[in-house]
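Entry:
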Amino acid sequence: MGHHKTRKQADLAKLEMTPMIDVVFQLLIFFIVTMSEQDVLAALSISRPQAQQVRTDSSAPLLQITIHKDGGIINGQPLNGARAQEQLSARMARLASFDPNVSVVIKSTNDAPHAKLIETLNICAREEMSNIAVFSL
């Protein structure tokens, strides 16, 4: 007599998902860690713009303004007194009439009043100077 065992649902093999997910994450971590950034960058197609002609004219006008607590210096010449801003305005207007693309470098000390810096920037705007750099000393 043959014994036929009836299998119950509980006896059937189950497919465990936890070890499979662990293996997938380990493989993912392995490939991320072993992937080199150079490999990614080497495969990128980059279109670079052509180099433009850079102006290297050493005779380009440069206006250096240093603002102090007691006054200022424009291209090495001191500006002091109540008419310092008027002198600065006149010199900047004269220089802007020669070349409106003049480079202006404004250096302001920590103890200089903020209003003097703003007035100097306003003069630059009035004379339509746009190539301006501001530094604090």
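The mean pLDDT is 77.
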